[in-house]
């Protein structure tokens, strides 16, 4: 039992001594261990390690250790361009997989791109532009092997709705476009900076529950917006709230709906949904939903072309610019108030894009078991959007649906993104004129069938089952998006996420403990109704670090318990409380406010003739208590290793 | 051992079974307990209790239970006006104490009030007004017995500096005053609302450390401002930063300093400081520093009057309006942009005032051991400022220095505030003209000697000794106030306080555990270097609730450890890790993001052929894990009550 002497840990595993003491109890030999004072740790080292754990917990520079300068340089370049690393072991069999998956996601992305550009109130070619440059940049700098880069529905909607609040997309087309590029530029800058300064953990503050609600809300909002195309309505509200959209839809019911459009739209929507269902039923047919949109486009375009349906009120795409991305650096606002607007819009959509990309990256990295450096990924995504903003792209990120197809089609590396990019290039150069007769209704159907997967009812049910608070956060974000706007929904999601954190740190659990019969163990009496209180002693356990945010609550709560207890004992003529034992095992840390509260608690107890006793303070806590002189204040002999030791010491001394 | 069956608690005190199992180990009888599935708790009840703990943990309505309607009404009125409660047992002996202390704090508050009004850039009478109405209101509604109400230095400075940014206090005097009343009105509204909706805990988010720094910085800033009066400088900067103030002071050195003023100011400052020192040395002479300011005023006023020093450049008060508070309801801005400005300024200064009052209330309540309902106090303070704003008062709150004098002079109830208020009334009605010849230098000396006590160097030293992070927060607030402005300092204080909370919830400690020799106990190997790892098993402990804010970190950190460990084992040709045991004892709660991370962790481990094992999940955690189906995923037989049990089960099964 040589460990008893330096057994100052307290860190919740004081089992040796507990075992020892409980054995001794059974022999009726009272032996009480003391909590030792630990040696002072090296403070500089402590701070360095704390900084390291916060920003560099994944030790990103570990490969650079003990290397020559040339090697370091090579490793450095490889770190920025991972393609130089994995490219060396690239081979034909990998290329086969990448080629097939690249072609598959290309056939999926082209129709989606055109539709998503409309969501962002931009001309269709901008969607295609954004599927050409950003995937190329990502392929060189990114380290996820499965992510498929390009425009996505939620970010397009968010961007479109925020830009629309500043400029009219039709009447102020040029300003609108310029602000879009400005926002894209700053989205990239935001992502780059977060990654570069290793602040990537900030996106963790949007909780999973909030994202589920936000995504589902966005999916419904996007689908509702598609009613315009699907029903062939010409006059449509600009707001995204469900109330004004439905009002718009029904106002147009009498003369604004176009039955030819509805027939085309709804029949292809049915086709797409069936394809989706087949792909879901049997994973082998994952390619069915992947190529269904392209087939729909071809068939419907042919149909319109042959029957000239556009003359019967079926709205068509009419025109897509031919040729690759024109430069757009000069269109970015680098001064004036549009800079500020662009920055605000860019930062928000950049963060949302990041959240989506990070979730995808993590999911597939876990499936194939490779490590992703989240911060490095952010730098790659940021660079890609900065370059994109200069080549007429709007905010691109990883797409959930296309990444899943990419994975299932057997991609091996980011080369599949390069393949997709090449196909988009050919499309832009050669076949954009063919999209002229594509009906808008088909694009609407494609978008609806794409975003419908974002509504994850199972996840919502699970949230309800597992954690009510998470469910509230989810519903808050969901209802905020569909009834108000995407921004409001986002705000609610962030606010609820923060409220949860604040609640966690302000109101820790504090339990009253009782002695479990025939043992020396003290447990929560609410959980163990058979546990009995020791007469004259109140034992409480604090289940959290004691910081300024909860220290007052802790003190007040404990005093309140003591008052209630004393009142109860008075009524039943029982012995007054003489000792208050605070079980500190779960208290991982304490700050000066916490120590102050303990001192206040001690003073209040003194007035009531109650002794304050601490059991099992952890090493960090014990350290700080000693530095503050608190043990001298209450008496070193009032600090015990276990509750059992404390009770054993004081129970016999009790006044009758 | 009947408790073994429902021993699903895990809540860090699984001692019975540990004792039991370790005993069995010594008998070489492998007996492994399982973590049981707890019965579902009543969810509605759970939510109700959680709301109750958050907002009503002090059970404010407990006296109303089981009472008749008339009694309830009477108790309700008493709850709003505690004077009706304690007033009934008021007697002559209590009045004696209150009279003496009331007269003492009156003699202290009158000179301070005049000075503090100048800090807020208001005419001297407004300080006196604020010591007349608010204390009266508080006496009826407040429940602290020791607090002395009136204007205080820090709030005056803060208010003055924020108001000055909107209107010039000399050229736009009327607008400035109107905005001051508007701000006071909204300070009251803010305080009232926080209290009424029981959101008082929000002020706990300003940490003790940040307040120490903020107060010290404010004291230095205030003292520097007094150099104007003390040195008789006429042209003085409007900024509060130390750099511009010192530049102002030295720019005036050649012709702007007035030696007569300096002689008067410095000699009385010395007198006041000596008085303060005497009071500090011997608590019996607490009244010496309490009446010293009044004596200084009388002596210096006489001196100026007799020698006509004002003709030698000594600046004097010149004029104080005679008579009690004029009504000011009509001066409050209830519309326009001044309403917004007033609201912003009022909310900030109201919160700071609240922080100060709450700290005072708590301190003295602890000294005399009575309970204060913080939220009810806020309602009282809020009402007092609302009424104050309609009677020409500016923001009043509890003063540290005067409350201490009140306490030491032997006050018993808030009647001492009424006495003070009456003395101020008489002053306003009768003797304000006598202040005409009071030199400004004396007011400066009084303010300096009053605020100097706010610089708590011992507390700063203690912060440095106990908690480096708290010290950084303190210094940040301190330097922010003295180099920039009060608002910036406040902002820094709040930001650092929040950063600490965020750090706490994003980066919990995760420790690798090893087996302490000759025991079945597993502890942090950094703390116990003699603890040995079990070959093929990695044991980690997570020291926090697992929430969305830290779940990704937790998963990544654990995987990183596994990778490092495996690399190390590979180099030394040792057995590969086959089991990862996560000790969950300190995990008090988990949310859906946390469960997702555990699932991701499980999937990653599967790819590496490592088994995931959980030890000792707490009741809440176990609940949620079962609701999510996680135990089915990893296998019910992978969840153990203790780490020792898990190791005992798997160690023999290990492949060589």
UniProtKB/TrEMBL annotation, chains A, B:
Gene Ontology cellular component list: plasma membrane
InterPro entries in the cross-refs: S04_transporter_CS (IPR018045), SLC26A/SulP_dom (IPR011547), SLC26A/SulP_fam (IPR001902), STAS_dom (IPR002645), STAS_dom_sf (IPR036513)
Domain STAS per the UniProt entry, residue ranges: 527-650
Listed transmembrane segments: 147-167, 179-199, 205-224, 259-278, 285-307, 379-401, 407-428, 440-457, 477-499
Pfam families registered for this protein in UniProt: STAS, Sulfate_transp
Cell compartments where the protein resides: Membrane
Record Gene3D superfamilies: STAS domain
Top-level division of the source organism's lineage: Eukaryota
Name of the protein this chain belongs to: Sulfate transporter 1.3-like
Species the sequence originates in: Nicotiana tabacum
């Amino acid at each position: 039992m040589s460990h008893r002497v330096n057994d100052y840990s307290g860190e919740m595993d004081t089992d040796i001594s507990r075992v020892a003491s409980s054995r001794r109890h059974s022999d009726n030999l009272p032996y009480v261990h003391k909590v030792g004072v630990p040696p002072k740790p090296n403070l500089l080292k402590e701070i360095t390690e704390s900084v390291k754990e916060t920003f560099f917990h994944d030790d990103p520079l570990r490969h650079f250790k003990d290397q020559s300068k040339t090697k370091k340089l090579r490793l450095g370049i490889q770190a920025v361009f991972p393609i130089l690393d994995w490219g060396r072991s690239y081979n034909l069999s990998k290329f086969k997989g990448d080629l097939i998956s690249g072609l598959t996601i290309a056939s999926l992305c082209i129709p989606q791109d055109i539709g998503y550009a409309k969501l962002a109130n931009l001309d269709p070619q901008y969607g295609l532009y954004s599927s050409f440059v950003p995937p190329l940049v990502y392929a060189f700098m990114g380290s996820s092997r499965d992510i498929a880069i390009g425009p996505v529905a939620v970010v397009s909607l968010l961007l479109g709705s925020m830009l629309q609040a500043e400029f009219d997309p039709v009447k102020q087309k040029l300003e609108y476009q310029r602000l879009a590029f400005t926002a894209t530029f700053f989205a990239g800058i935001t992502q780059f900076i977060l990654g570069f300064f290793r602040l990537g953990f900030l996106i963790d503050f949007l909780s999973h529950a909030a994202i589920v609600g936000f995504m589902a809300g966005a999916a419904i909002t996007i689908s509702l917006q598609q009613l315009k195309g699907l029903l062939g309505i010409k006059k449509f509200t600009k707001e995204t709230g469900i109330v004004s959209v439905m009002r718009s839809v029904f106002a147009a019911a009498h003369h604004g709906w176009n039955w030819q459009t509805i027939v085309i739209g709804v029949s292809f929507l049915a086709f797409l949904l069936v394809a989706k269902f087949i792909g879901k039923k049997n994973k082998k047919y994952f390619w069915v939903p992947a190529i269904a949109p392209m087939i729909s486009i071809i068939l419907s375009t042919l149909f319109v072309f042959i029957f000239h349906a556009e003359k019967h009120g079926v709205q068509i795409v009419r025109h897509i610019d031919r040729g690759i991305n024109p430069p757009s650096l000069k269109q970015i606002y680098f001064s004036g108030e549009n800079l500020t607007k662009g920055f605000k819009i860019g930062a928000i959509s950049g963060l949302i894009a990041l959240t989506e990309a990070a979730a995808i990256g993590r999911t597939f990295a876990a499936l194939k078991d490779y490590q992703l450096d989240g911060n490095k990924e952010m730098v790659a995504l940021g660079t890609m959007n900065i370059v994109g903003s200069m080549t007429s792209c709007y905010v691109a990120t990883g797409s959930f649906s296309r990444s899943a197809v990419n994975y299932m089609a057997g991609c091996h590396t980011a080369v599949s993104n390069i393949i997709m990019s090449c196909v988009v290039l050919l499309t832009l150069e050669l076949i954009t004129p063919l999209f002229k007769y594509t009906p808008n209704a088909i694009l609407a159907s494609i978008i609806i069938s794409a975003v419908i997967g974002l509504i994850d009812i199972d996840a919502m049910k699970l949230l309800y089952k597992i954690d009510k608070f998470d469910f509230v956060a989810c519903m808050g974000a969901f209802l905020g998006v569909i009834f108000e706007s995407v921004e409001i929904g986002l705000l609610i999601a962030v606010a609820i996420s923060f409220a949860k954190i604040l609640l966690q740190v302000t109101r820790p659990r504090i339990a009253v403990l009782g002695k479990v019969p025939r043992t020396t163990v003290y447990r929560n009496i609410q959980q163990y109704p058979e546990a009995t209180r020791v007469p004259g002693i109140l034992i409480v356990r604090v289940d959290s670090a004691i910081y300024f945010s909860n220290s007052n609550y802790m003190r007040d709560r404990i005093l309140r318990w003591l008052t209630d207890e004393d009142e109860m004992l008075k009524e039943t003529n029982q012995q007054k409380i003489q000792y208050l034992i605070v079980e500190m095992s779960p208290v991982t840390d304490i700050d000066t406010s916490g120590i102050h509260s303990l001192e206040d608690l001690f003073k209040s107890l003194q007035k009531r003739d109650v002794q304050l006793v601490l059991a099992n303070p952890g090493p960090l806590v014990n350290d700080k208590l000693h530095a503050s002189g608190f043990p001298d204040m209450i008496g070193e002999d009032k600090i015990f290793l276990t509750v059992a030791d404390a009770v054993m010491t004081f129970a016999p001394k009790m006044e009758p």
